Structures are given as C-alpha cells and as structure tokens.
Amino acid sequence: MRFPRSGSSLATLVACLVALVTAPSAHAADPPLRDLADAKGKVIGTAVTGSRLTGTYGEIAGAQFNWLTPGNAMKWGSVEPARGSFDWAEADRIVDFAEAHGQEVRGHTLVWHSQNPNWLTNGTWTPAQLSRLMNDHIALEAGRYKGRVAAWDVVNEPFNEDGSYRQTLWYNGLGVDYIAQALTAARAADPDAKLYINDYNVEGVNAKSTALYNLVRDLKARGVPIDGVGLQAHLILGQVPSTLQQNIQRFADLGLDVAITELDIRMQLPPDTAKLAQQAADYKAVMNACLAVSRCTGATVWGFTDSDSWIPDTFPGQGAATPYDENYAPKPAYRAIHEALGGTTAPPTGACTAAYSVTSQWSTGFTGQVRIACSGAALSSWKADWTFGAGQRVTQAWNATCTQSGATVSCSNAPYNGTVPDGGSVTFGFNGSWSGSNPAPTVTLG
Ligand code: G3I
C-alpha cells in the first residue's frame, strides 16, 4: 500500500486506510515457498525494507522465503551517511529478523557506483586514499556481519551494456583491479561468505554477460576469491531471454554458483488477466531455467509485494512486477513460483471457491450464475472454467468475459471485479440454452 503523496485528497487517504485495515492476511498456497525450496536445496528469497517487517508484510516475509536481501539497508549511503558516523539499525533489524525466522541473508552491496554517501561521491581522493576507503569499508561492514551473511554482492553493476567497464568512482580511481581488491578484502573480512559479482541485463547471452563471463573466468584463473555471479533479472513482461538457461550453464561450467538476485517482471499498468498470466509464465520460465542447472542456487525477488517495488518510481506507468499485489494477495506469478518449486497445481488460493447455480429455467433457456468466494485467501484476478455435460451453451454473460469452445466454457473477470478480498465474493451471470437436461457442471477456479 502506497500512501498518497502530498496533494492527494482526504478521500484517497481514507480509502487507503480502509484498504489497509481490511487487507487480507498472509494466506497463500500450502506448503509455503520456502518449504518447497528447502526440499530442493534452493534459495527463494526476497528483498525487504527493514521498517516494514511487522504485520502482514513481516508475516509473509518470514513465512514464504528462506533468504532475505536488504533492499537498501546495507548500501554504503545507508550505513555511513556522514563520514565516520554509522547507522546499522535497519541492516541489523533485517539480519536479526532473518535469524529469528531461520533465514539466510544476502548482503547487498559493498562496492557500487550508486547510493554512496555524498561525502564519498563528492570527495577528491588519490588512488591510495580510495583504495583505503574501499578496503576499510569492506572490512568494517563484512566484518560486522561475519558469520551472519551467507553471501555478499561484493561488487555491483561493474559493466556497461556493451561490455566495457562502467566509469565509476572505483574504476576511474583504481582501474579494473578494484574488483579483485574488493573480493580479496571481502574474503578476509568473512571467510565463510560466498562472494559474488552482481549485474543487470546479464541474464541472456549478450555482450554484457560475456564481459562478466570473461571477468570471472580470469579472476578464478588468477586465484582471486570469487564464488558466484548474480543475475539481477529485472525483466520486462514477455521478454525472458531465450538463452537464460544456457547463460546460467556457462557460468556454472566455470565452477561458479549462479544466483537470480533481484527478480521482478514489470508490465504496463494496469494489470489484467492476460498480463498476469504472461507474467506467471515468465516467472515460471526463470525458475525453471535456474532449477535446471544444479549450480543455480535459486532466486530472490526484488520485493515480494507491488507495494514495495522500485518499478513505479523508476518506470512511470509500469509496475505490478512482484508475486503479490499491493494488498498482499498472491498473484498468478506466486502460483507459478510455487509450481516451479514442486508445489501442487491446485487453484491459486485454496480457500477461494466457485459455486455454480441455475437461478431460472424455461423451455429452451436458462439463467445461471457463478459465485466466487474467498475465505482465508484472496484473489487479484480470476478465471472460472467448466465443461457442460448435456450440450448447454452460454449465449450471453455479464460481469465476466465468457467464451465457449465445444462444451468448455472459460470466464474471466471484468476489469472492475478481479479482486476478491479475504471474506468477500463476486458473482457473475449468464444466459444459456439447453435441451433434454441441464445438469450443473463443476467449476474450476484458476
Ligand atoms: O529513504 C528515502 C526517504 O527518506 C525519502 O523520503 C524518499 C524520497 O523519494 O527517498 C527514500 O530513498 C529512496 C530509497 O530507494 C528507499 O526507498 C531513494 O530515493 C531511491 O532512489 C531508492 O531506490 C532504490 C534504488 O535501488 C536506488 O538505485 C530502490 O529502493 C532499490 O530497490 C534499488 O535497488 C537496486 C539494487 O540495489 C541494484 N540493482 C538495481 C535495483 C533497482 O534499481
């Protein structure tokens, strides 16, 4: 739930508060994602915001995921806003929460060009000073969490799209050697943490991922400590790279782990049934590509709810990129992850049901309705399917879009009634034709 920015009406604020109060609790499929992932020895993680780890947000973060990544709390600008003045509160909170919930932590991130403190960015440093600053920062932060962070994104986003090195404070001051220095410092600070280089647009085989490949191959050959690569996977609807699995495999073949570190799949708003179905297929494709390669450790989503996603702020008009909607209702993408991890193919939310009834009937026609009700679960979109057993045909529907092919009818929500909150229901109706008999079919909710 995003609160309205200044200038929004009181009515909007009240609507937000009501929605908050009535937000469905953390009901999703059983077993939770983390149990399925644990059984496969895989990571299913989420980025989190420390201040939100209470209530429904905290329940879901704790119940569904086996790894957490601080979305911002461990970045240099967060932990040392003024030189020598440290703020570990949010990072500590996340690490404590993870330990209390039996979760691992992915540290993010030690050396980056972005979200650095102003004192660092605006300073003028000799190479020796810069090297000292970087090494001290790594020693301090990775040392602080020694034994409590399972993997570190040591270096974040070192490449340009064409595979050349990004011109950053670090590269410009220290040359490409800053990467080896950073990894070496991280290993010294926490010998048990897995050390990663993490980047975006490196999911498929392309110039950028090939540059990353060449870098980590050379680092390994030189004996520089490197355990894995992070493929961020900030993807666009319908655009999962076809070479994703091949790309993961080539890194694995170097003897490196591969992690999907920041998975989200954005779409043009508003979402609709077709987009959410495509998104679910995309999430499943990413999960399957990872699961097909034993050295792919698993996937972390970059925020589990659309209310905690960076997308709308960065790509105006786009969003709905995560597996849960803004009111914590699991989306088809959640189900896709669940299924990819080996969950059953039961309907998305076990406690939403559909009931078919004939409300009136005459010599050749009838009026029917389907009521979809949720209890202990919620839906953000729905599809109700059934197969007529006696030649009936739907001739007209309302409050849903229905198509019939042979005996099979498929009805999906109208733009205005896709949401079925916990404890709520929606009903749609239709007219049909029949002859002989008019038995009620069983409706499947998808
Ligand atoms: O904390 C301040 C708040 O006090 C202020 O009122 C507000 C005003 O806009 O800004 C808040 O800070 C924002 C911060 O997120 C926390 O919400 C920053 O403006 C905003 O720039 C920052 O965005 C983060 C972004 O990194 C910065 O590049 C996103 O949350 C975070 O999800 C995103 O994460 C990165 C990964 O670290 C690396 N890969 C790409 C990914 C997406 O950009």
UniProtKB/TrEMBL annotation:
One of its GO terms (molecular function) is polysaccharide binding. Its EC number is 3.2.1.8. Keywords: Carbohydrate metabolism, Glycosidase, Hydrolase, Polysaccharide degradation, Signal, Xylan degradation. One of its GO terms (biological process) is xylan catabolic process. It catalyses: Endohydrolysis of (1->4)-beta-D-xylosidic linkages in xylans. Pfam families: CBM_2 (PF00553), Glyco_hydro_10 (PF00331). Belongs to the glycosyl hydrolase 10 (cellulase F) family. This is Beta-xylanase. It comes from Streptomyces lincolnensis.
